[in-house]
Amino acid sequence: MNNVININSLSLGYGGKPVITDATTSIDAKDFVFIVGKSGSGKSTLLKSFYGEIDVDSGNLSVCGVDMKNIAISKLNMLRRHVGIVFQDYRLINEWTIEKNVMLPLIVNGFSKAICVNQAQKLLKHVKLLHKANKYPLELSGGEQQRVAMARALAHNPVLILADEPTGNLDDYSSEVIWNLLRSAKEFLGTTVVVVTHHIPSTININYRHFFIDEGYLHEII
Ligand SMILES: Nc1ncnc2c1ncn2[C@@H]1O[C@H](COP(=O)(O)OP(=O)(O)OP(=O)(O)O)[C@@H](O)[C@H]1O
Ligand SMILES: [Mg+2]
User: Fold this and answer.
1) Considering only CA atoms, which residue is closest to atom 26 of ligand 1?
2) Residue 195: helix, strand or coil by DSSP?
3) Hey, whose CA ends up nearest to atom 14 of ligand 1?
4) Using only C-alpha atoms, what is the Rg of the chain?
5) Among 5, 73, 97, 107, which one is least packed by beta carbons within 10 Å?
6) What is the DSSP letter of 68?
């Protein structure tokens, strides 16, 4: 499938108050997309609509070929199995170890225990947290939790990664680790990557698309 996200005259908001107005664009397989905009401009809202956390007010939105308008929960759960999400507030399961948190998308997809453990350990190694595999989220710093969230998002080799400020709490070195992981996902696995950020890293060294949201309108800088 070439067209991973299709947006047509899309409007989104809360309780009738518009946040995104009349957005139209499409994001193709293997695109690496940055969405920027000032705080409160609607970046998270737009990203949330891509995994069905925000309903479509008007217009059309399809993700991986699935129409997101009035989507049934069963269909949404199916779609989410193919998407990796890094939430702005991480949303780790505090009662689970770090390793089990990273295993979550693999467990949902029915992989065997051995594969889950193997893959979780590989990713924790990538984000330099293997030594904390048996700790719990609340025993980790904010930046460490953010790296766990990224490891979890990548665990099942999703076709689409949606990441909301994935380096918001990280120092330069850890940010570099995250950008390299996302770049590798695109280059070696053909993953489509959509990242909300306040700063596009100058060292990213990849062809990317650059969108910004201003006054509710989505623009692309070409
Ligand atoms: N659950 C909600 N209910 C009502 N209004 C909301 C809700 N979530 C966000 N908003 C409002 O929608 C607007 C866009 O919020 P959003 O979180 O998308 O911004 P953002 O661009 O991600 O900001 P930031 O850079 O601070 O994360 C803001 O005015 C915010 O107050
Ligand atoms: Mg946000």
Assistant:
1) 39
2) strand
3) 42
4) 17
5) 73
6) -
What integer pLDDT is reported at residue 2 of this predicted model? 76
pLDDT tens digit sequence for 44-81: 999 999 999 999 999 999 999 999 998 999 999 999 99
What atom in ligand 1 is closest to the CA of residue 46?
18
DSSP letters along 10-63, please?
EEEEETTEEEEEEEEEEEETT-EEEEE--TTSSHHHHHHHHTTSS---EEEEEE
- Check if 40 has its Cβ closer than 6 Å to any atom of ligand 1: yes
1-82+161-169+187-222 has CATH 3.40.50.970 classification: no
C-alpha 216 to ligand 1 mean position (Å): 11
216 Cβ inside 6 Å of ligand 1 = no
Show me where the domains of the chain are located: 1-82+161-169+187-222, 89-157
* Terminal-to-terminal C-alpha distance of the chain: 24
How far apart (Å, rounded) are the C-alpha atoms in residues 45 and 123? Answer: 28
- Using most ligand atoms within 8 A of CB, pick from 19, 20, 211 the residue to mutate for ligand 1: 19
Residue ranges of the chain with per-residue pLDDT less than 50: none
